[in-house]
Amino acid sequence: MLYVDEEFYLNIFRGEPVQEADFPALEERAAELIEEMCRYRINPENFTSYSERIQMLIKKAVCAEIEYLDANGGSEMDNGADLQSAGLGKFSFTKTSSEGSSEQSLYAPRARRLLAPTGLLYRGGGSV
């Protein structure tokens, strides 16, 4: 477990169910993306140095990313393939030309909103 386990994801975050076999890969990829989004200010080693409130927001952001990855192609979503259009169930993805703006983000919008008040998304120099 990097930040969350399946029990937290299902019972506290109340995320959309994912295949049990897929959860470890989704959690690992989601954690990588959240760490990247936060400019590598967080990692499993320093996680407990943050306040309980910020820890909870990080956990929820990881869960939001798990849910987003699962809904949009799984843990291989950022493998660099140049997919133009796909659909499966309630998920649909269309990419426009390179000049268009329909390119899908790797970051869950909900994860960004959860992390916004933490200061971890701050790009400036100096300490947060």
Derived from helix and strand composition plus strand pairing, the structural class reads mainly alpha
Compute the average pLDDT. 84
Helix-residue proportion: 25-40%
Q: State which percent range the strand residues make up.
A: 5-15%
Give the strand order, joined by hyphens, for the main sheet. Answer: 1-2
State the helix count.
4
Q: Evaluate the radius of gyration.
A: 15 Å
Instruction: Give the overall form.
Output: globular
SSE topology string: HHHEEH
> Care to count the β-strands?
2
Query: Uncertain regions: pLDDT < 50 for 5+ in a row?
Result: none
How many domain modules? 1
Protein name: Phage gp6-like head-tail connector protein
What features would you highlight for this structure?
single chain; 128 residues; mainly alpha; two-stranded antiparallel ribbon; 2 strands; 6% strand; globular
Protein model, in words:
39% of the residues lie in helices and 6% in strands. It is mainly α and 128 residues long. The protein has one domain (6-118). Strands 1-2 form a two-stranded antiparallel sheet. It is globular, with a radius of gyration of 15 Å.
Short description:
39% of the residues lie in helices and 6% in strands. It has helices spanning 6-13, 23-37, 52-71, 109-115; strands spanning 85-88, 91-94.
Layout of helices and strands:
Elements: H1 6-13, H2 23-37, H3 52-71, E1 85-88, E2 91-94, H4 109-115
Antiparallel strand pairs: 1-2
Helix pairs in contact: 2-3, 3-4
